[in-house]
């Protein structure tokens, strides 16, 4: 019989796998070069999934604890980078480039009216990536007793 945390952990893993599949299926494959965004997206989903799997096992050896902490650091860094990228989106483009895409520079004002606000973008990303954020939160809770002796 599974405990509640094991059952919910399984649900989080399944939801994370579905989100991973949906996001990776929507990404375009680059014609040439190294697909940095796709590689980061793989790490974005797979590092927290590994942390969540490790959450259910006792890490008694110091090497396992340090490995868990290192993976947690990588996962948190990649999650922060990807969420900042998600929030900023196309903010790096200037109006000339946006207008060139549509053929008119005035169409950007109408497109900006249709875009959701900053708060809705944050809420949407939080809901969509909740399996990853939950796995990182649980990993941080497990890692805290390991970090305390190091401080």
What does this structure look like?
- It is a single chain.
- With 151 residues, this protein is mainly α.
- Helices cover 76% and strands 0% of the residues.
- It has 7 helices and no strands.
- The chain has helices spanning 4-26, 36-55, 62-88, 95-102, 107-114, 118-128, 130-147.
- The chain is globular, with a radius of gyration of 19 Å.
Query: What structural category characterises the helix and strand content?
Result: mainly alpha
Termini separation: 38 Å
Poorly predicted tracts of residues = 91-101
Estimate what percentage of residues fall within beta strands: under 5%
Morphology = globular
DSSP helix fraction: over 70%
Order of helices and strands: HHHHHHH
Radius of gyration: 19 Å
Mean pLDDT: 77
Q: Give the beta-strand count.
A: 0
Q: Can you summarize the main beta sheet?
A: none
Total helical segments: 7
Topology (elements, then pairings):
Elements: H1 4-26, H2 36-55, H3 62-88, H4 95-102, H5 107-114, H6 118-128, H7 130-147
Notable features of this structure?
151 residues; globular; mainly alpha
In short:
This protein has 151 residues and is an all-alpha fold.
């Amino acid at each position: 019989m599974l405990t509640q945390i094991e059952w919910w952990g399984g649900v989080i893993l399944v939801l994370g796998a579905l989100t991973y599949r949906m996001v990776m299926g929507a990404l375009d494959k680059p014609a040439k070069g190294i697909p940095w965004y796709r590689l980061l997206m793989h790490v974005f989903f797979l590092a927290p999934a590994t942390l969540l799997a490790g959450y259910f096992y006792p890490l008694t050896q110091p090497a396992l604890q340090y490995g868990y902490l290192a993976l947690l650091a990588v996962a948190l860094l990649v999650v922060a980078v990807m969420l900042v990228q998600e929030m900023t989106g196309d903010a790096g483009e200037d109006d000339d480039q946006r207008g060139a895409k549509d053929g008119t520079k005035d169409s950007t004002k109408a497109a900006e009216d249709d875009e959701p606000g900053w708060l809705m973008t944050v809420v949407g990303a939080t809901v969509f990536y909740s399996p990853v954020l939950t796995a990182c939160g649980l990993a941080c809770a497990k890692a805290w007793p390991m970090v305390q002796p190091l401080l």
